[in-house]
Write the structure tokens for this entry.
Amino acid sequence: MRKTTSFTISYDILAEIAASKGEGSTSERVNHLLRRALDLERRDKLEQEAAEFFTHEADESLKERTAFQKATRKSLSRD
């Protein structure tokens, strides 16, 4: 389903779209480029979220490992 709408596009961008559209219409080319841009944006966001998640996990793992090592040393020193 398509909806007709209006956007303001810079002349230089419009010229690039016209030059790269091939045999399809300008509208089809713009839709294709927007889909790719939105997909790229989603992937970038997921990559950023994953990096933040694993950074947090690494910090937590380090704290847990340090606590375990400290407890092990304390336990072994009693023997």
